[in-house]
Each structure stands twice: as C-alpha cells, then as structure tokens.
Amino acid sequence: MLKPFDPTTPLPPQEPGWDNHLTFSYKEIDAFWLARWTPETGWEPGRLYEHRGAKLELSPGAAVLYYGEGIFEGLKARRTRTGKIVLFRPQDNARRLQASAARLAMPAPSVDMFMEAVIAVTRANARWVPAPEKGSFYLRPVVIGSGPILGVAPAPEFLFYVFGCPVGPYMGGDRVIVPYAAHRAAPYGTGAAKAAGNYAACLRPQKIAKELGYVDALYLDAREDRYIEELSGANFFAILKDGTLVTPALGSILPGITRDSVLTIAREIFGWIAVERKLAIEEVINDAVEAFYTGTAAVLSPITVVNYRGVDYPIGDGQPGPRARMLRQALEEIQIQERPDLWGWVVEVA
Ligand SMILES: Cc1ncc(COP(=O)(O)O)c(C=O)c1O
C-alpha cells in the first residue's frame, strides 16, 4: 500500500551520523514520486508518496517481470558549499529515458514531467542531500511495464516512479578484467538503452570479476570480440601516448552523460584532442598511458590494470594518471558550481 506523502506530518528524526561513511546502497527515506500510464488516460498526474515502508503492488503477470520491460535513469543532486541543491544535466537524463522507452516500445514521461518528478523528490528529501564533502543524493527514475500480459507484447499499463538515496562512492577500484566469452550487448540490440536486461547480462561477468579481485568487467564488442565497449555501469576512456583522449564510439554502449561531459571538458576547457572511435583492446594494452571509467555513480575513476586473456597489463606506469585527475577535478567543480558552467548543465532546485 502506498501512503500519500504529507509534508505537514512530522518526519522521523534522522539517525545521528547518517551521513558518515555513506556507501552506494538503497535506503528508504522520506518521499518518492509515482505516476501511472494507461492507454485511456496517458500519464496520470504523478504525486509524492511515503518512501519508508513503501511497496509497489504488481500483478504476477506484469510485463516487466518476465519480458524485462523496464528502463531507468540515474542522476545526482548535490549540495554546494553555499548550501544550494543542484542537479547535473537532468534534461539529458529525461531525453535518454525517452530514447530507452522508444527502444522497448514503452511510453515515456515528457521532459517537463521528468523534471517535475526529480525536483519534487529532491525538495521533499532535501534533508537527505549530504554536505559536499560527505556524498551526494542519487536519484533513480524508473519506468516499468506494470500491466499484465501473457504473449510477447508491450505492457497495457506502465508506472513511472522516482526515488532517491544519499550515497557515497560507487565502486572504488582501479583494476578491470575483460570477461571470457561474455558480451554485454550486440549490434542493434538494446545496449544503448538503459534497459534492465542489459544489467542482468552483466551480473555474472561482474561477479566473477569481483571474485578474481577486479572492480568490474570490461566488455568487448559482440561482433569481433576485440573492440572495447564499456563496463557494467560506466563508460571507458583511454589516453594514448600521443596525448589523444579516446572513448569507444556510440552504438551498442550507453551514451553516458558523464562521457559527453568529459569529452566536452577535454575539448573546450583543456583543448585536448578527444575522439570517439573503435578502440581495440590491444591498442589500449600497447599504447595507453592512462585509462579511466566514467558515470554518474562512479564520477571518473582511474584504471591502472587491465586483465586480458589471463594477463594483467599495467596502464602507463600502473598508477592513476594526472590527466584523469584534471578531468575529474574540473567535472566535480562544475557540478558544485565552483567552476563556470559554460554549457548550462547545472540546474538549481533549492
Ligand atoms: C552501462 C552504463 N554505461 C555508462 C554509464 C554512465 O552513464 P552516465 O554518465 O550517464 O551516468 C552507466 C551509468 O548510468 C551505465 O549503467
């Protein structure tokens, strides 16, 4: 049962020290937002509900449960040192959700509806947005095929909901492994959509990677098993000996918003040559002096070792590189309004 969120009801106190040592994990907080879509009404107006103890009621026949008709987004609200709360490129998340929805024959909220939901959730839970040095507030917008269906077809009803959690660092490791005989996505598949099923395909390679002491799997392309795609939840970059910043071209990878931000910062702030193209694993092993991964959750983290076919290859001198650090610093400063935002990326919500 969902209880409407009443902002005038006194809220339970926050446990002391809730923001010390935050991890990247699910937490029920004050309010989340939900709207329903039916063929007759389209998107009904959404509203806030109590998050603590909330359960979604779903038919056992809900399309998401077996045909995987589920897509989502991830974006962060951050507190600035002046006490404002800001979102980073939220309209881009709204547009990517629309692209994912189109691929899976689902309805998507408009950009305005998406913005209404993420702003409402951020404002209602403002007390859970950590101080800048403590963490950030991760927002998770989701669309699922909630209506029951038996044969393969789009669901007759959908839910769009948004919850948030205060979070700390995401993965925090710098060694990756190319999985043996496992791909994340195929050409013309759903790799470019933020579809739940793409993550299901990553669970086993990621688990094996962790068991072997690596932070994540680094996937190669499904056609030639040679060109780097991305990690389970982050995009890949390398800096080559000649100074070029290279990231795999779009196609069957997620078009990361951090990826696009890093390309823009590299080109427009630092004046570096930054290209999107096919990037063979051998090229990274032989020619990269730095490598890193990017994502909303991961921000930008160095890669110091790539394991390929059983061999650990250090990248450059096997230490985090200076240019990855420069990019991360510039990105983080823009995200909390400590460096000019030349592109209108940062949206103040409180
Ligand atoms: C598979 C995958 N690739 C890349 C990314 C990075 O995308 P973004 O920078 O928009 O968070 C994510 C995270 O959302 C992801 O799940």
Please describe what this structure looks like:
The strands form 3 sheets. Strands 1, 2, 3, 4, 5, 6, 7, 8 and 19 form a 9-stranded antiparallel sheet that branches. Strands 11-10-9-17-18 form a 5-stranded mixed sheet. A 5-stranded mixed sheet has the order 14-13-12-15-16. The longest helix is centred in the middle third of the chain and has 16 residues, at 196-211. Strand 10 (216-220) and strand 11 (228-231) form a beta hairpin. With 350 residues, the chain is α+β, with helices and mostly antiparallel strands. It has 7 helices and 19 strands. The chain has helices at 63-67, 90-103, 111-124, 196-211, 257-268, 281-287, 322-335; strands spanning 31-38, 42-43, 47-50, 70-72, 75-79, 85-88, 136-145, 158-167, 175-177, 216-220, 228-231, 235-240, 245-248, 274-277, 288-295, 299-303, 305-308, 311-314, 346-348. Bound molecules: pyridoxal-5'-phosphate.
